[in-house]
Amino acid sequence: MTDAAELRGRTQELLAAHPPATTDRLDFLKARFDAGLAWVHYPEGLGGLGAPRSLQAVVDAELEAAGAPDNDPRRIGIGLGMAAPTILGFGTEEQKRRFLRPLWVGEEVWCQLFSEPGAGSDLAALGTRAVRDDGGPSRSSEAESGGDWVVNGQKVWTSSAHVARWAILIARTDPDVPKHRGITYFICDMTDPGVEVRPLRQITGEAEFNEVFLTDVRIPDSHRLGEVGDGWRVAQTTLMNERVSIGGMRIPREGGMIGPVSKTWRERPELRTHDLHQRLLTLWVEAEVARLTGERLRQQLVAGQPGPEGSGLKLAFARLNQEISGLEVELLGEEGLLYEDWTMRRPELVDFTGRDAGYRYLRSKGNSIEGGTNEVLLNIVAERVLGLPAEPRTDKDVAWKDLAR
Q1: Which contacts (CB < 8 Å, 24+ apart) does range 68-74 have?
Q2: Measured in whole angstroms, how far is the alpha carbon of residue 387 from the centre of its chain?
Q3: Spatial contact of 370 and 377, defined as CB atoms under 8 Å apart
Q4: Residue 103: how many CB atoms within 10 A of its CB?
Q5: Long-range CB contacts for residues 200-206, cutoff 8 Å, separation at least 24
Q6: How far apart are CA 401 and CA 107, in angstroms?
Q7: Could you count the other beta carbons within 10 Å of the beta carbon of residue 311?
Q8: pLDDT at 135
Q9: Confidence label for 170 from pLDDT (cuts 50, 70 and 90)
Q10: What is the pLDDT of residue 286?
């Protein structure tokens, strides 16, 4: 079994063969993936070595000390935290080898086509349709011979759709069964005909999110993940990983939202009051507890199969971000009401803590919606972590086509 000493040796060999100071960033990342040091708990040949997940920290520490480049989760976080574990868990060997390497090195950006205007919190009610067409010629740039799926519908709140090459997509393939069945999971080429991305301007002024219209989009059956009609089970892997990737992001001590307000507190003593001091101390401790809990949860994960505990972590992330950003605005007083720039822009990065205090305050409002609303996550924690009785669901056994909409 691979141990820490062996991983250090492998990392040193990588650094010797590809010195960070003289190696192109992308070439270094590709070499790291091929050496099995991208995510060490993944199988050999897919960026890993089948090692315990906790040993990733050994590799990361060696590379950081050497000044080696890394990928940027702010740009490719959906691919890293959501698409990759789902492909690993349900993809064919061909799909794994085609998608995981360019995903990890950042050559291909991914987005998530899940939520719809009429299916947000109740995602299983989605209405985007995928119909099998065994006779039509495929228009996909990477299609193989065989049947296609023709997809029509609308998705919304799609982060990074304007820069994405691929999307993870769930669509209804059988309207005659209850809503949690009859859903199938696909990989969608965002450059194919019929895919239209429109910006959604947010309260921050920018359009980080998008709405996506799918009109007669052809997806080859070779880009299906999992069995036909089993898409809800596949999507659960995506959603549970999403909550861990949002709530349990790897950050240094005093990283994230607590960093800027702590820095202001130290550098601007004239702004301090006793009440704000007590609140800042409380939030600092809670932020550190959440950070360490996230680290522990990541180490407990079996590759691609996190449990419902990630929902609790994501709940804490949203609450803390909103309380900390509110405290920061209050601390700054009139300065906290200023806003750097409300110009319409379409950023390539998803950055919760960037720019100024006003941006952080406004952006944090979305934290309790994205990746699962607080209300939905509270239900998950209540039922699947605490074992409390489930809420009555009268539509559980009703065919999707018969549901009121």
Answers
A1: 68/15, 68/20, 68/28, 68/32, 69/20, 69/25, 69/28, 69/29, 70/29, 71/29, 71/104, 71/105, 71/106, 72/106, 72/349, 73/245, 73/249, 74/349, 74/350, 74/351
A2: 27
A3: no
A4: 25
A5: 200/156, 200/157, 201/344, 202/362, 202/363, 202/366, 203/362, 203/365, 204/342, 204/359, 204/362, 204/363, 205/339, 205/341, 205/342, 205/343, 205/344, 205/345, 206/344, 206/345, 206/346, 206/347
A6: 40
A7: 27
A8: 61
A9: very high
A10: 96
Indicate the average pLDDT of the chain. 90
Q: Are 69 and 53 in contact (CB under 8 A)?
A: no
Enter the tokens of residue 31: 């070499």
Contact in structure between 39 and 48 (CB atoms under 8 Å): yes
**C-alpha–C-alpha distance, residues 356 and 340, integer Å:** 7
- The reply to whether CATH 2.40.110.10 applies to domain 80-97+107-231 is yes
- Return the domain boundaries, the chain: 4-70, 80-97+107-231, 236-385
Tell me the per-residue pLDDT of 219-241, one tens digit each, with 9 for 90 and over: 999 999 999 999 999 999 998 88
- Cα–Cα distance between 261 and 265 in angstroms, integer? 6
CATH number of 236-385: 1.20.140.10
What's the pLDDT at 305? Answer: 59
Instruction: Round to whole Å and give the CA distance between 304 and 301.
Output: 8
Q: Which residues contact 165 (CB under 8 A, 6 or more apart)?
A: 108, 109, 110, 189, 190, 191
Q: Which residues are catalytic?
A: 242
For residue 145, what are the contacts with CB-CB under 8 A and spacing of at least 6? none
The whole-angstrom separation of Cα 76 and Cα 237 is 18
What digits encode the pLDDT tens for the residues 337-358?
A: 888 788 899 998 888 787 899 9
Q: Residue 29 corresponds to which amino acid?
A: L
In whole angstroms, what is the distance from residue 217 CA to residue 51 CA? 40
Residue 309 has pLDDT above 80, yes or no: no
